[in-house]
Specification:
- With about 160 residues, the protein is an all-alpha fold.
- Helix content is about 80%, strand content about 0%.
Length: about 160
């Protein structure tokens, strides 16, 4: 079972790194707006969650998989090349898709904290880590982005 946990943690770290980079890019792309401010707060919180996750791995003596982490970074950067309905620059679809992907990632992270705390038994093994707080933090991040995701979707699909 520890082998499966090691694989799971390495996979989740790589995805977390990808979400962190997407959040940072989205915050930069919306700088100077309310959306950008919300994205900046969430990007910082996601980065803190990745640090927490790394600490859990360190304490379990599980080393990150550098290949998976580089692949996640590369995938995030390649995602920037995707057509967005505009020849150059940021489009309403770009904003919506970034917010949509981030909310999906946050939902997945919430599930991951439940999985680690309860199914993988880390709540008992690491009683100083507040998995309930981590779940609540993911819920707060999701709630913070939701109005901007909805507004971006409405803008993208009514201007298309």
């Amino acid at each position: 079972m520890d082998e499966f946990l090691r694989i799971y943690l390495r996979d989740q770290l790589a995805m977390g790194i990808g979400w962190r980079e997407l959040a940072r890019r989205a915050a930069r792309g919306n700088e100077g707006t309310e959306t950008g401010e919300a994205l900046d707060r969430v990007a910082k919180a996601v980065a803190e969650d990745v640090d927490t996750f790394r600490e859990i791995m360190r304490r379990l003596r599980i080393t990150p998989d550098p290949v998976k982490n580089v692949a996640a970074l590369a995938a995030e950067r390649v995602g920037r090349l995707k057509p967005n309905g505009r020849l150059r620059g940021y489009s309403p679809l770009s904003r919506f898709e970034e917010l949509e992907l981030l909310t999906m990632g946050i939902d997945g992270k919430k599930q991951m904290w439940h999985t680690l705390g309860d199914l993988a038994g880390l709540r008992a093994r690491m009683n100083d880590i507040d998995f309930d707080r981590l779940v609540a933090r993911a819920e707060q991040q999701r709630a913070e982005l939701e109005p901007y995701r909805v507004a971006a979707g409405a803008e993208a699909f009514t201007t298309a």
